[in-house]
Design brief:
With 227 residues, this protein is an alpha/beta fold. It has one domain: P-loop containing nucleotide triphosphate hydrolases (Rossmann fold, 3-Layer(aba) Sandwich). 49% of the residues lie in helices and 15% in strands. It has helices at 13-24, 31-41, 44-55, 61-72, 90-102, 117-126, 165-179, 181-189, 201-217; strands at 2-6, 27-30, 81-84, 109-114, 127-130, 136-138, 157-158, 192-196. The strands form two sheets. The protein has a five-stranded parallel sheet, with helices on both faces. Strand 5 and strand 6 (136-138) form a beta hairpin. Helix 1 (13-24) packs across helix 9, helix 2 (31-41) packs across helix 3 (44-55) and helix 6 (117-126) packs across helix 7 (165-179). The longest helix has 17 residues, at 201-217. It is globular, with a radius of gyration of 17 Å. The chain binds adenosine-5'-diphosphate (ADP) (2 copies) and zinc ion. Zinc ion is lined by residues 130, 132-133, 135, 150, 152-153, 155. Its EC number is 2.7.4.3. Belongs to the adenylate kinase family. It is found in: Cytoplasm.
Length: 227
Amino acid sequence: MRIVFLGPPGAGKGTQAEILSKEKKLQHISSGNLLRDAVENGTETGLKAKQYIEKGQLVPDQIVVDIIRDRILDKDCRNGFLLDGFPRTLAQAKALDEMLKKLGNKLDIVFYFVVSKESIVLRLSGRRICSACGANYHTKFVPSVKDGICDKCGGKLYQRADDKLETVQERIRIYHEQTEDLIEYYKKNGILKEIESETDIKTITKKIFNVIKDASQNEPLINFGVA
Ligand code: ADP
Ligand code: ADP
Ligand code: ZN
């Protein structure tokens, strides 16, 4: 299966992507993680992307499309992947369609996470990440046992610089300005599935699994094409 997670920052895309990718053996491709890795490694791409990420703005399409193309062409993505945070503009969505067409494939489902602005702000302001293993926590909703310490590996938890309130406001603005159009685009394609995401993590996971169960029962043959 080839799946996209669409929705505002902080909606819970990364959290659900972790669960689903493990369960369904899909590669979890997070554009944000790929970009942050590039920044950390000081690559040419990372140097270009850094200034945009810091301001909460979108990294130029060409840079992101190139990173995603490279990743999708990896062998481990042959049998399916889950894109989290990409595409975010119409140009990216069209580039993705082209890429998949060349590979004899197409997207199966786009999940659209519907959540209020109040929840977005609450979720982002409490988000904490493990500096060692990347695990995702929330000070209130998904707290670690020991304050500031990862349950899984003992690493130190930190807050992403772009999760500070000022940048969060800018990211929400950019989402409405540049990403929301994709909802119509995928609705027209007939592959958009809205997931009401105001509830707890488990309930959302169940909803996603139900949609996938129904979809895979009548999966068209093309999905087994070579990639
Ligand atoms: P995104 O990838 O969409 O930006 P995340 O998955 O990183 O969002 O979630 C943002 C924050 O909210 C994280 O700290 C996560 O632990 C928390 N979170 C995720 N889903 C929920 C939920 N359904 N209810 C409450 N908190 C959540
Ligand atoms: P969130 O889901 O919490 O908004 P991400 O980790 O997906 O955060 O993205 C963090 C930042 O990385 C974005 O604010 C943006 O600067 C950059 N970024 C990630 N994905 C894309 C994309 N598809 N196009 C452009 N910029 C992106
Ligand atoms: Zn950890």
